[in-house]
Amino acid sequence: MKSTILKQNTNNSICLNKKNFILLFILTQFFAFSQVEEVKNYEWETVPKFNEIPKEFENYPAVVLKDYRFYENRVGYYTYKGFVVKHSAIKILSNEGVNNFNKVSIDKKYVRDYRDLRARVIKENGTIEELPKERIIEKENSDERQFVFEGVEKGDIIEYFYVIKDFPELSGVEYFQRTIPVIEGKFQINEIPNTFTYAYGYNGMTEASTNKNKIFYVKNLPAYKFETNATNYANLAKVYYYTRTISYDFQDFFRDLNYYADGTNAKTMVKKFISDLKLDDSSIPLDERLKKMDIYIKNNLEIDYQPSYKKIFEDKKITPKMVLNLYKDVLDYLNIKYKLIASTNKFEDHFDEVHVVPQTLSEIMIFIPETNKRLTPFDYWMPYGPPSNVCINNSAVMFRTEGKNNKNVYYDFVTIDSPTVDENLVKTNSNITIDEDMETVNVNKKMETTGYRSYYSRYYMKYISEDKLKDYIKENVFQDINVDIKNYTISNKEYEFNYDNTKPFTFDTQVQIKESWIENAGKNYLFSIGKVLGKQTDLYQETERKYAVDLYYPKKYLHTITLNIPNGYTIKNVDNLVFSKQLKDNENKEVIADFNSIATIEGNILKISIEEFYNFTHLEKERYNEYRDLINTAFDFYKSSVVISK
Known about the structure:
By secondary structure, this protein is of the alpha+beta class. 21% of the residues lie in helices and 35% in strands. The protein has an 8-stranded mixed beta sheet, covered by helices on one side. An 8-stranded mixed beta sheet has the order 24-25-23-22-29-33-32-31, covered by helices on one side.
């Protein structure tokens, strides 16, 4: 019995020792990074010490051993200045790394003064060579200062830092993730007396703040990897920071937004605008009146410099701030109930329900409960109705006001709803003929779009120059296929057609293919008919996935392809053009994505019909391989050919 108890106590002692060691290690790391760094008179270590490089990072061309970003803001009655330190050390691990990282450029635009700028090379044997100041050059006709580390070899460390004296940096964001791993990163910003400094770290940044400084650090940060259809920038390790004179929450963000939208009292102007458009005629459905208002504003008032809100209709110019102001003034005058919504661009920032980060709340919408639609004042290409395309199915904050003069502000977290898959349609019709020389290929291709793609195209058409129009058509209709446009028409390009899906934005083109689609194979010809779709995404090499799949919005493609078979020839292997791949919902087994093609020969015409759709905006990364197979099916069709025989 005694020995059993002794054994248990020994085991418990071992467990406690392990726990204590882990706790001690964590605390040691925390206190090491919570050390406040000098900024104004920053100095580097005479003999630097760097952390070891993990084995999984050794195959990169280089690694960042140190990445420090420090801010010191001084604001008072007699002072208004800031100091910024940027300090980096990069170890070169290959010859490729030498070529990629032996030059450093620093943007000096908008910078008042560099107090210090130093650079050195630490050789593999420990020798330290500091670059003389004359080696730091200013590039001609550029806002850059540049220094080149000459004689750098594999195994060397290049290190540099600079101190900027400028106006205070009161808000911003620092991204720490790079295309190579970061072994150690640190962010620091001081608290200005009698103010509130807020800083929030994301995606691996750990907080180690003190009473007077906000501090975040990161260790062994993997390299950034871009992935197709992913929220790449939102997933980067970063720190947002901002300063306010009072404590700040979501209600304060709403008040700031309201204050931003409150312009000069212009009731006479607003009343006349409402009267001229008959926006106060209650016999007309509210939906139609809001549509009329939106069409007029976005058709007639250009976003431009405008010093006077009262002159927007006279000058036909308006600022984004004034657009929000005008929408609110009209709605308030007509006593139309509305709620302001704020969300993030989900591809750049995840929505944070715990902390208010004003810089990330870029998607501002005015929600009309009666019509269940939105006005998007800052997105001039967007019609009244759907939400901004970068925040579909994303979290958002919706504000409501109550009480006298709407002084009481409340908010709820909501999810931005999604349009249907049929509202975002791309429809193409391609008619292909081959000349008697069996080399020249002519295509008449018509492309019709509705939904977000058509909204943007109509907006873009207002500003594109004539000399760039053909390139824009090539990019949209043929995607990287080299063509000579012989003739084209563009229809339904006016803004008001955003409200009528029966009038899609349309390119109608006649082109000659300028690349080889026909390959002579003895008595036969191999014809690359799939290329008429335009280049498709190839995910065959993207086998590993780090992030979930995220799309902007649900969408559908309908393609019709007809090939006029040359006289005296026949088509073989039509079955090569038949593809079918589906993606089903895990819960109800409903098809949420599909690529399906059918090919038939009718007389001397080969006819192909394709339906492709994606009725989702988010797919967990565990299902990436299924999504990849579907995307590659479309790519396989793009690469497909038919045999034309005599």
